[in-house]
Automatic annotation (TrEMBL):
The active site is at D148. It catalyses: acetate + ATP = acetyl phosphate + ADP. Belongs to the acetokinase family. Homodimer. GO terms for molecular function: acetate kinase activity. This is Acetate kinase.
Length: 401
């Protein structure tokens, strides 16, 4: 079965086409600047040259039509016909409490995703646009939605509830939902396979750290706690997000600076984190360069980031009464050897012992970076959310027949 995986944003659309007989990527690409007369489609067929096209793409239906044209193009395509695509998988950020796993798209499923617009106003509306565009271009082809929040639906009430009046949960479902669930689920499974151990026997802390970042405590293969909350703002210090802070900071700053709700929300999501402390960049590569050069602001940003990351790892080891495996993944987790090194240096009380030479290796494959004597396995595992979505899509379509 060939499965097209789509990740639709408000003005962009990422795609990957899989041949699920061997889980190979046939092509991938990105449509940028949707809604403009100078939209850019970058198409990368496996084994062929990358091609870029600039044209007017005013909405997602046209974007997907352009993608399908590229996939079936005689020179740059990988399909003889659109009919070869037998299913489409979509990434959806928020599934609320309604979805504990991926689901076949139905009118009822789309209605529920729309109902959750308030919880993910920047992400769920484009997802619906992507689904509708897929249905318009490929009528009769089944669509499946995979939710970033679904993996965390196994958390207990004592974990996901906030200590605020419970009526707010009953009326508005204000609770911890988490994010990056597809990534956390994928790397925890790969970790168990890599170690050749049953995932049911393992306590794993997965560290998905990129520009957005979250940690998850995975016990016996299920999420028991995660650092992001009602929204992706809670938890770790990130590229431009503040992470945890005293809630009173919000009202205090609004009062002192006469900021509106939207302005303070923008401050916390787009102008905080590494960017705010360094004053120069939200990119960990720039922060690391500044730290190595002895620049005080970048040094402080790096140290705050590492400290909060390490503190959460310690908290989740306590939550699970131990840890067997720590996994680093995503942009920073996979590529920043110094972040991994400095974090693990101060986890010796858990029995973590890092092999500094192995830690410097960059392979693009799952690998161990702890020593044979380490009581905790430390792994670097490249995440692959698209493959996880493709697998779920294949499974659900096959089960629905």
């Amino acid at each position: 079965m060939k499965v097209l995986v789509i990740n639709a944003g408000s003005s962009s659309l990422k795609y990957q086409l899989y041949d699920m007989t061997n889980e190979s990527v046939l092509a991938k690409g990105l449509v940028e600047r949707i809604g403009m007369d100078s939209s850019i489609l970058t198409h990368k067929p496996t084994g062929k040259e990358e091609v870029t096209e600039v044209s007017e793409i005013l909405e997602h239906t046209t974007a997907i039509r352009k993608v399908l044209e590229k996939l079936t193009d005689k020179e740059h395509g990988v399909l003889s016909s659109v009919d070869e695509i037998q299913a489409v998988g979509h990434r959806v950020v928020h599934g609320g409490e309604a979805f504990k796993g991926s689901a076949l798209v139905t009118p009822e499923v789309k209605a529920e995703i729309r109902r959750l617009f308030d919880l993910a106003p920047l992400h769920n509306p484009p997802a619906i646009m992507g689904i509708n565009a897929s249905e318009a271009n490929m009528p009769g082809v089944p669509n499946v939605v995979a939710f970033d929040t679904a993996f965390h639906q196994t958390m207990e009430e004592k974990v996901y509830l906030y200590p605020i009046p419970k009526v707010l949960y009953k009326k508005h479902r204000i609770r911890r939902y988490g994010a990056h669930g597809t990534s956390h689920q994928y790397v925890s499974r790969v970790a168990a396979e890599f170690l050749n151990r049953p995932i049911e026997e393992l306590k794993i802390i997965t560290c998905h750290i990129g520009n957005g970042a979250s940690l998850t405590a995975v016990k016996g293969g299920v999420s028991v706690d995660t650092s992001m909350g009602l929204t992706p703002l809670e938890g770790l210090m990130m590229g431009t997000r503040s992470g945890d802070l005293d809630p009173t900071v919000v009202t205090f700053v609004m009062n002192k600076e006469e900021l509106s709700i939207s302005e303070v929300n923008s401050m916390l999501n787009k102008h905080s984190g590494l960017l705010a402390i360094s004053g120069s960049s939200s990119d960990m590569r720039d922060i690391t360069d500044g730290w190595e050069a002895g620049k005080p602001n970048e040094t402080l940003a790096f140290e705050m980031y590492e400290y909060r990351l390490r503190k959460y790892i310690g908290a989740y080891a306590a939550a699970m009464n131990g840890v067997d495996v720590i996994v680093f993944t995503a942009g920073v987790g996979e590529n920043s050897a110094i972040v991994r090194e400095k974090t693990c240096e101060n986890l010796s009380y858990l029995g973590v012992e890092l092999d500094k030479e192995l830690n410097k290796v960059r392979s693009g494959e799952p690998r161990r970076i702890s020593t044979p004597n380490s009581k905790v396995e430390v792994l670097v595992i490249p995440t692959n959310e698209e493959l996880m979505i493709a697998r779920d899509t294949l499974r659900i379509v096959q089960e629905s027949k």
